[in-house]
Amino acid sequence: MTKTAARRPAPAAVVVRQSPAPPPAGDRRRRRLLDQARAYGFLLGGLICFALFSWYPAIRAVVISFQKYTPGSSAEWAGTANFTRVLHDPEFSAAWRNTLTFTLLALLIGFAIPFVLALVLNELRHAKAFFRVVVYLPVMIPPVVSALLWKWFYDPGAGLANETLRFLHLPTSNWTNGTGTALVSLVIVATWANMGGTVLIYLAALQSIPGELYEAAELDGADLLQRIRHVTIPQTRFVILMLMLLQIIATMQVFTEPFVITGGGPENATVTVLYLIYKYAFLYDDFGGACALSVMLLVLLGVFSAGYLRLTRSGEDG
Amino acid sequence: MSSATRTLISPATLARPRGRAVYWSVFTGVVVLFTLAFLFPVYWMVTGAMKSPDEVARTPPTLVPEHWHLSGYTDAWDLMQLPEHLWNTVVQAAGAWAFQLVFCTAAAYALSKLRPAFGKVILGGILATLMVPAQALVVPKYLTAADLPFLHTSLLNDPLGIWLPAVANAFNLYLLKRFFDQLPRDVLEAAEIDGAGKLRVLWSVVLPMSRPVLGVVSIFALVAVWQDFLWPLMVFSDTDKQPISVALVQLSQNIQLTVLIAAMVIASIPMVALFLVFQRHIIAGISAGSTKG
């Protein structure tokens, strides 16, 4: 501070403050305290909100998971009773199986399609803005509306899905009413609604690939598929991995689609972990069980999140 | 974004007659695919709301409504109390935006420029919340909002129940902090030497220089509240105070299909309009944000 001030024509007041004799120690400490008070004044609002709605709930989830808790009355310690009760719930294994299947299917369907689409879009030299806007449009439609829209499409009566199959002379499907097809139907909705963001991110990554790499590969006699395999995929590997982790984290927390479209049915075929947490808290009034489930989900997702953060860190360094 | 950049397929291949034929057939295919996959469902929704209740249930369906009814839209507007729910959503989104801009900006400024004691620890604590997926913590968050520690008041059925938790957005705060970190220190110091206080520096130097990042944060904040479902579902048990997303689901059970579809269209209009107006910024933001981490 002293150096910069000395180089500038400073107002008189500042020059006086920077007299060669250092201010007394008490003065300096008071100024430092004042600076700190001011800094914390700016921080206060944000800090309170983070404490109340991020840090405290995280601790509380762990505490309540070991308690018998009903809002309004004092909590009692329950040991691991919540965990054993939740583990013995037949819905528990169904919820985890559904969530993991959903995540896996979402990776298979919702991962390959955006990549191939981005690959094709990157080669097109016309109507670029049109494609980008159209593919992102479903992302801007509220998720609740997308879910209700697809619920209507899947309607066994006059739903668009079966009408399309009939029009193409294909056998119709039960969609969300069949235990075997319900989960896949929801994955289609989630993919349709969220694909836009993934496609745009891939497009950005593809555009950053230096063209010389393709030219060199072509001179070496690499055909189209070889160029994809040896240039495109290695060059976008970081983005692919990052999006994969992000998608796993997001799809493991799926709630809106099963809640709105199927209500967890048929026969628990679409109950997800987050849906089960919601049911424990708001249908069974069992907050201890809900928190025990939350802690389990948290630990699993924490592993993926840590992987994501490490990946983005290393990406920044490189 | 120059069209001259070399991509997977070389310009020479594309210039050949065969290459050109393949290019245009792929192009047409993608246009048809995108129209069917993304635009047609939206068309189906907008026109479905204009069909008569009989026509919308007919098989095979009609591609274009026989008669264009606007009554679906007017009924939705009146029967489902859409003005009220839309207003609730606007209030919740606008408040969350304002709270986030004020508190996140101030906190990011303090962490970036004011060197608070334990600043590193605080930043670490904020970034750690990025590792904790928000949805997994909704139940303890709900219990906190239902009975705030020390104050023992409830934020349920109160827009504050949306506004305050929205401030705890580590992603937006970090975005702001990283932007502030890049602002040249000597500009801020020059303002201070001219006698400006910290608040004055923030208001008249830092914020005007931060317009791009403030725009991005604003859009993220608005969209997040408008699209959210689980949290407002928990916070607002009171039907009169519910935002449009929660109200739509609650009312969808016992309402005529055409009216529900009309309400869905109306609920989508604000965000789609926001997107169409700011599409350049939004698309550029997504593309840039991702590659830079």
Secondary structure: number of strands of chain A: 2
Please give the CATH architecture of the largest domain in chain B: Orthogonal Bundle
CATH homologous superfamily label of the largest domain in chain B: MetI-like
CATH fold label of the largest domain in chain A: MetI-like fold
As a whole number of angstroms, the C-alpha radius of gyration of chain A is 28 Å
Helix- and strand-based class of chain A?
mainly alpha
Under CATH, the homologous superfamily of the largest domain in chain A reads MetI-like
Number of strands of chain B: 0
- The helix count of chain A comes to 14
Mean pLDDT level of chain B: 89
Low-confidence region ranges of chain B: none
Task: Look up the CATH topology of the largest domain in chain B.
Answer: MetI-like fold
- State the order of secondary-structure elements of chain A, H for helix, E for strand: HHHEEHHHHHHHHHHH
Number of continuous helical runs of chain B: 15
Characterize the main sheet of chain A.
2 strands, antiparallel
Organism (chain B): Streptomyces fuscichromogenes
Membrane topology (chain B): Multi-pass membrane protein
Transmembrane segments (chain B): 21-44, 86-109, 121-140, 160-180, 201-226, 255-278
Domain ABC transmembrane type-1 (chain B): 86-278
Blueprint of the fold:
The complex is a heterodimer of chains A (318) and B (293).
Chain A: H1 2-7, H2 12-17, H3 25-65, E1 67-68, E2 76-77, H4 81-87, H5 90-123, H6 128-140, H7 143-153, H8 160-167, H9 182-207, H10 211-219, H11 224-251, H12 256-262, H13 273-282, H14 287-317
Antiparallel strand pairs in A: 1-2
Helix pairs in contact in A: 3-14, 4-14, 5-9, 5-11, 5-13, 6-9, 7-12, 9-11, 9-12, 11-14, 13-14
Chain B: H1 11-15, H2 17-48, H3 53-56, H4 71-79, H5 82-113, H6 119-131, H7 138-146, H8 160-167, H9 170-181, H10 185-193, H11 198-209, H12 211-227, H13 230-235, H14 244-251, H15 257-291
